[in-house]
Amino acid sequence: MTPPIVSADIAVVGAGPAGLAAAVAAAESGATVVLVDAGAQPGGQFWRHRPETVVPVPDGQGHHGWKSYLDLRARFDAARHQGLITYLPGLQVWMAQQNQPAQGDDAGFTLRTTPTVAEAASDRSAAGARTVVARRLVLCTGGYDRQLPVPGWDLPGVMAAGGIQAFIKANGILPGKRFVIAGTGPFLLPVAANIAEAGGKVLAVLESSSPTTWLPHLRAAAGVPEKALEGAEYAAVFARHRIPYRTRSIVTEVLGSGSLGADHASGVRTAKVDADGSVRPGTERVYEDVDVVGFGWGFTPQMELPLSFGVETRLDTDGSLVGVVDERQQSSVPGLYLAGEVTGVGGATLAVLEGLAAGTAAAGGSALPQKTAASEKTTARHRRFAEAMHRAHPVPPAWQDWLTPETTVCRCEEVTAGEITEARESLGARDARSLKSFTRAGMGWCQGRVCGFASACLGAGPGASPTAESLSSAAKRPLAAPVGIGELAALDADYEDPTNSLLKGDRA
Amino acid sequence: MSTRARGAAKTAAIGGVVRVSFDGRPLEASPGQSVGAALTSQGITAWRATRKGERPRGLFCGIGVCFDCLLTVDGSANQRACLVEVREGMEIEGSCREDPSEETGGRA
Ligand SMILES: Cc1cc2nc3c(=O)[nH]c(=O)nc-3n(C[C@H](O)[C@H](O)[C@H](O)COP(=O)(O)OP(=O)(O)OC[C@H]3O[C@@H](n4cnc5c(N)ncnc54)[C@H](O)[C@@H]3O)c2cc1C
Ligand code: FES
């Protein structure tokens, strides 16, 4: 059955800070908007909150910028009420296409969607799949935690740092009792603070970088005083809960225990590292009785939809592949706008500013000149701050030395570091795409979202960072979400054979 | 595969109980919780075994990206435990081997 069609002037994908802002700005400029989001309710990652069916008025506890959310949400609800915004939650866009330009370049875009949760398993009265048609498209698909594999990271109890944060925000409980948080970046601080405030014990936060790397970037940080304030808040929480913050430190191995061998994380082995990430011998230390280990190495923007249009991309300061946009957030594809993490990881405030600009521009409106100038300045300040953060918290070049040949790199297809190195050395597989075909790394359910960055690094070789081409081949996905055979069959387009393993129900 | 107790520290102060079942056993959850949270808070942190190494898996990314947390919900296979909300009477099935003696190698 072909899904019903919903059409509007503008389609927005993602209801996080960027997408909400884009939808609101476009509607307030007089355009009609369809907002599609995989989540069950607005907020995205940053403003994720308890289900409104259970907690109708969230208090915003543990949230920064909750006032901005409430403001955007009120404007969003008002625009929905006026019939300007059609909100389609619980739907994932699995394919986005540009319509055939029959009448000039304004032919627009088509989005194909599928329910995030199978209708039979859904608690909400899900609307069912819709096909969305719009003249302009704003992609605000956000990102997810970037991961570096380490021995034992595939044990249950190991989670993405953001995943722990999301768990707490959505469920109001903790995923365990005793935590170690490791990786790099300022985001480790709110994760640890939220755990402690929710009653969990944080044994340590291990930051691979060092505070002295901050010094050259102080000027950029000073441009965003609210960040300094946030920092002071976290420092107070860390002091109150006695959370040790260990810099130049990493987890070298997640230890496991269980009746039949390791079946759950039970501790971590840590070490001090040099500036490049090389382990300093003799600095090893073990934390025992740990039931959750959280890893975060920054974020990876969710690029498959932008890439499916062939937008121009670049490598950002943090090594992520991001979309290139002009000052109105338009990508290299006319009519296609990008906002939020997909144009560079920069946090929620920046995502909102970009979303507002994208929504206004997509609606063909022009904000008041002086308003634009002011917000462009704020945007520039936040971008400088994000860049300073990225420079102060790099992925340590020597991280590949932490792996053993047995370490799992691709969690889905269970491909080890040894197999990948072998493919690189003997078969000359140097980019994510050839590694995929030789080793199946990145060919499983997640389509390389989790291992894509690491595989691209391993392909590039020890100490090297991946090229934009390699990251792009890792992030190109035939389908942006798994779909059923029926949904594919309903496609009349001459669409080439999608990866079979992505069909829902393919595996038990 | 063991599913021994590793409780979550604090339970939400929201009234009401949602009764579900996991692999045929009754389980109490809180309204609005994800299936993943409901299982984890009962000490069940793994509910799937990988195909090759039969390694235990549960929540990882927490946001629907990694597909590590797949299970069957009311007969729908391959649902993400981190995204599905519990509902009264929900039947949840994992794909771990119940009998540990059936386990075959591949574990570190
Ligand atoms: C798990 C996690 C937790 C985080 N927590 C914090 C935090 O506590 N504090 C902080 O400062 N920063 C946090 N961040 C960083 C945060 O992502 C950004 O600061 C901010 O949320 C970016 O906003 P955004 O609008 O670009 O994207 P997001 O907020 O990520 O929103 C993107 C939205 O797009 C949807 N989407 C993506 N692809 C599709 C598709 N194909 N079809 C339909 N919908 C789609 C997603 O479901 C999501 O709702 C977190 C990041 C992650 C990954
Ligand atoms: S935990 Fe990653 S998809 Fe559910």
Question: Which descriptors apply to this entry?
Answer:
heterodimer; A: alpha/beta; FAD/NAD(P)-binding domain; seven-stranded mixed sheet; 14 helices; 21 strands; B: 108 residues; mainly beta; 1 helix; disordered N terminus; binds FE2/S2 (inorganic) cluster
Describe the overall structure:
The complex is a heterodimer of chains A (508) and B (108). Chain A has 508 residues and is an alpha/beta fold. Chain A has helices at 17-28, 66-81, 161-171, 188-197, 218-222, 225-240, 304-308, 348-362, 369-392, 417-427, 432-439, 452-460, 468-475, 485-489, and strands spanning 5-13, 33-36, 85-88, 91-98, 109-115, 131-139, 143-145, 158-160, 178-184, 201-207, 245-247, 249-257, 264-272, 285-288, 292-297, 299-301, 313-315, 321-323, 336-338, 408-410, 415-416. Chain A has three domains: 5-143 and 300-371, 3-Layer(bba) Sandwich (FAD/NAD(P)-binding domain); 147-297, FAD/NAD(P)-binding domain, CATH 3.50.50; 403-467, Arc Repressor Mutant, subunit A (Orthogonal Bundle), CATH 1.10.10. In chain A, α4 packs across α6 (225-240) and α8 packs antiparallel against α9. In chain A, strands 1, 2, 3, 4, 5, 6 and 19 form a seven-stranded mixed sheet that branches. Chain A has a five-stranded parallel sheet with strand order 8-15-9-10-11. In chain A, strands 12-13-14 form a three-stranded antiparallel sheet, with no helix packed on it. Chain B has one helix and seven strands. In chain B, 6% of the residues lie in helices and 24% in strands. Residues 1-13 and 99-108 of chain B have low confidence and may be disordered. In chain B, a hairpin with a 6-residue loop joins β3 (48-49) and β4 (56-57). Chain B has one domain (3-97): Roll (Ubiquitin-like (UB roll)). With 108 residues, chain B is mostly beta strands. Chains A and B meet through β8 and α3 of A and α1, β4 and β6 of B. The complex binds flavin-adenine dinucleotide and FE2/S2 (inorganic) cluster. Flavin-adenine dinucleotide is lined by residues 13-19, 36-39, 44-46, 92-93, 140-145, 162-163, 165-166, 187, 190, 299, 302, 305, 340-341, 347-348, 351, 480-481 of chain A.
